[in-house]
Write a structure and sequence with these properties.
The chain folds into 3 domains: about 60 residues, Antifreeze-like/N-acetylneuraminic acid synthase C-terminal domain (Type Iii Antifreeze Protein Isoform Hplc 12), CATH 3.90.1210; about 130 residues, no CATH class; about 50 residues, no CATH class. The protein has about 325 residues and is an alpha+beta fold. The N and C termini lie far apart (about 145 Å). A 5-stranded antiparallel sheet has the order 3-6-5-4-7, with helices on one face. The chain has a 5-stranded antiparallel sheet with strand order 11-10-9-8-12. It has a two-stranded antiparallel ribbon with strand order 1-2. It is built from 6 helices and 12 strands.
Length: about 325
């Protein structure tokens, strides 16, 4: 009978371990199912901003797991090129129908108008008003007004005023996107639509009737100025004088009365002379005491508010002396 050595035991244990590992791997492989994949999925090759009209270079083909491919994914390149994005896209994101405007459509003016703003259209018949045909939607401009003096104008000399600064161009003619506006300038610019606040809309509409409007292009990185310099107002455009500031009411005058060792302060309206307030020695204001005691007193001495106290007026009765 052969003797079992320690080396034989070690080798047997190793073979048993390898057999168990192999059986586990085979069993796990039998249980796992292959992940279904989808070939030729149309995706964005890079980040694409909204309002972009897609070209062939924006579209790529990849293979993705079926779980990453939405049901509305557009699978044909021909259905993508020339379409305009409504929403921005990330790289490798599949193209789906909800990301686009309807075929042949694009953003409307109301889509581009921010909450709290109004769209006002001005004529751009002059080269300066339309920036020589170079104005584009999303440009940032200043609005200037040149007034020619006449017999009915409050302005007596030819003057150019800054009406608005940092105003966004919403549309050029009927084009609300930069690409279409760039391609459709053969006949020159006829109108420019601006995004302004309600107050600025009133000013702009009135200014169109007072002179010639011009646009000055700004660097888009500047944005709107933090502080608006002095500009034309409705009163200046209409020639209406500013309303006077409300008059400051005169300060009441004060009379101090001493009776039986007590001090009483009466305040009188400087215009009517009627008592309006009474303060006793304890410092408590009283409306009724001032009104009831004033008629029994002689004409009070007038002391401006804030003055120091005075003694009894000559017309006041002498204080009672006790003891």
């Amino acid at each position: 009978m052969r003797r079992i050595t320690p080396a034989t035991v070690t080798v047997g244990v190793l073979f048993a371990f390898v057999a168990l590992v192999g059986a586990y791997v085979v069993k796990a492989g039998l249980r796992s199912k292959p992940v279904p994949m989808v070939n030729n999925v149309m995706v964005a090759v890079a980040d694409i901003p909204a309002e972009t009209v897609l070209t062939a270079s924006d579209v790529g083909r990849v293979t993705l797991p079926q779980s990453m491919v939405p049901p509305s994914t557009i699978m044909e390149r021909a259905g993508l090129v020339g379409r305009r994005l409504r929403e921005p896209m990330k790289a490798l994101q599949p193209f789906t129908g909800n990301l686009f405007y309807p075929p042949g459509g694009g953003p409307t003016l109301s889509n581009r108008l921010k909450p709290g703003f109004r769209a006002v259209t001005i004529e751009a018949t002059s080269a300066s008003a339309g920036l020589g045909g170079l104005a584009r939607p999303s440009d940032i401009v200043d609005v200037l007004l040149t007034v020619n003096p006449d017999s009915q104008s409050p302005v007596k000399t030819r003057t150019t005023l800054t009406l608005l600064q940092g105003v966004e161009v919403l549309a050029v003619d009927t084009n609300v996107d930069r690409v279409s506006a760039k391609l459709d300038q053969s006949n020159g610019i006829q109108t420019v639509t601006l995004s302004v606040t309600p107050d600025d809309a009133n000013l702009l509409v009135l200014a169109k009737q007072q002179g010639q409007l011009q646009l000055a292009l700004r660097n888009p990185e500047e944005g709107a100025p933090k502080e608006m310099p002095k500009r034309a107002t409705l009163h200046e455009l209409l020639g209406i004088p500013l309303p006077p500031n409300p008059a400051t009411p005169p300060k009441p005058f004060v009379s101090e009365i001493y009776r039986s060792g007590d001090r009483q302060e009466l305040q009188f309206d400087a215009t009517t002379g009627r008592p309006i307030r009474s303060i006793g020695s304890g410092g408590t204001p009283s409306q009724s005491s001032a009104s009831s005691q004033a008629p029994s007193q002689s004409a009070p001495s007038r002391v401006p508010t804030g003055s120091g106290g005075v003694g009894p007026s000559p017309a006041s009765p002498a204080p009672d002396r006790q003891g």
